[in-house]
Model the fold of this input.
Amino acid sequence: MNLLYTTTGNFQTLESQENIAAWRANYHIIESLPMERLTSYLRLDRSSSLALVDAIVCAAETDMIAWESPTVDSMLSFPITRALKLAEDVRALPENCAMRDGRKWKSLPFVILHNAASYELTPEMREDTHAHLVVQRGTDVTLRQIQTIVDEYQNRVLEDYRSVGIIIRFENGRAQIGAALRKKDPHIESEFYYAAADRRTNTGWVTVKRDSEGLRNDVELFQH
Done:
């Protein structure tokens, strides 16, 4: 997976350091970005249109806002509340804010990691958010939960591709997009896909997802 990682606190906390180190050790690509820069990066930074990310992960950790600050709503002093606000800001991004394969940033899975004792997380918050709320129970368990969310998202993207007429095939554990993408209509738009932002100029089949069989075949091909 390629994950964009942010936190409501800072990247020097023990949990964030353990997450990033353990996930990278499992060969996942982890890029970090301060939460106050995230939405402006996605909306305005040209490099965001060249990225390929599978999920945004936000760790709801203790922040540095003082409770007595007169300029900050006390509710926003809760890490989980700030993370949910960031998730809504990402969801509100323009439709044309997309990655280089045409996938919309606003439709990307937004995963919030929080502790089991997040008393400020009310039932209404759980129901009203599109974000995936994951209780942090160790780096490996958390990673498997994120992988499940990403797998479900990728399956929905494949169905979305079919709905706009893109050819898909499954071969040797790989889900691939066909060359019909070369003739894509630049005006095509769906829940996950914005054709005008798609920078790919494919001349053959392009792999967009692999299962364990596909990964094993790729390793064998690389070794050969």
